[in-house]
Amino acid sequence: MTDAPGLQSYEALSFDCYGTLIDWETGLIEALEPLLARVSQRPSDQAALEAYAQAEGDAEAEHPADPYPEILSRAWLHLAKLWGVDDDAIARDHFARSVGNWPAFPDSSEALTRLKARYKLIILSNVDRASFALTNRRLGVAFDKVITAQDLGSYKPDPRNFEALVGAAEAMGVPQERLLHVAQSLYHDHLPAQAIGLRTAWIDRREGMTGGGATLPPQAPVRPDFTFPSLSALVDAVDCDS
Q1: pLDDT of residue 1
Q2: Selected catalytic residue, list 16, 66, 128, 189
Q3: What pLDDT score does 176 carry?
Q4: How far apart are CA 127 and CA 134, in angstroms?
Q5: pLDDT tens readout for residues 112-129
Q6: Which residues contact 150 (CB under 8 A, 6 or more apart)?
Q7: Which residues of the chain form CATH 1.10.150.750?
Q8: In terms of Cα–Cα distance, which of 27, 19, 13, 11 is closest to 207?
Q9: Which of 63, 95, 126, 169 is the most exposed place for a label (fewest CB within 10 A)?
């Protein structure tokens, strides 16, 4: 932890969604099952997630204007080729539209409701508007602002996404120093957020797990200002900071 001001000093929290609020690794493995079931030597879930992380990262970097379902479709095609499996267009389409089925972490809805009583809440997500709308039904919270990759034409960790976040917060009357970005991914969120001067809180959903899962490793060292094993732990820390 750095010398960041206490949690009560912030006026708004911005969130990554998938990996932080939504258990996207469980959702991804379930949605990839029709493909994984046809691999002659089925990879472990961990290996499958790491392969997905690279496929998704490449697709987002090469096609930043594509909406997220198209990114998922491209990732599926890459994995099918990698694993020596013929494409199934119907199964691929189901995978591309699976985001709304990915489960929320058990603590997300209640924690967000508690945080809503204290802060403005903002989403900064790498998905499209339609996919997030389905997800939001699971979270059950009205966010004050939702910013998606579809809105911006770029995917995190592109710095433009975080510049847009700061601009949106300032338009809501929240200066950058009163905004705390809350996320799981060091690669997608913490490194680029801190590069423009944002404070960050790491929700380490993979605490104690091996490998990187569905998230690429950060390209440089990064030290979040706060670290919590869950969103509920962040809420408890807010209450203690009162």
Answers
A1: 45
A2: 16
A3: 98
A4: 11
A5: 999 999 999 999 999 999
A6: 67, 68, 127, 128, 129
A7: 24-101
A8: 19
A9: 63
Task: Return the closest-CA partner of residue 126 out of 53, 230, 205, 204.
Answer: 53
Both tokens assigned to 32: 């990839």
CATH number belonging to domain 7-23+106-240: 3.40.50.1000
CATH hierarchy code of domain 24-101: 1.10.150.750
Percentage of residues of the chain with pLDDT beyond 70: 98
The boundaries of every CATH 3.40.50.1000 domain in the chain are 7-23+106-240
pLDDT at residue 241 above 90? no
At position 171, the amino acid (one-letter code) is A
Chain-centroid distance of CA 172 in Å reads: 23
Q: How is residue 68 written in tokens?
A: 């997220």
User: How many residues can be counted in the chain?
Assistant: 242
Write down the residue that tokens 């994995």 correspond to.
79
| Active site annotation includes 16 | yes
Alpha carbon distance 108, 20 (integer Å): 8
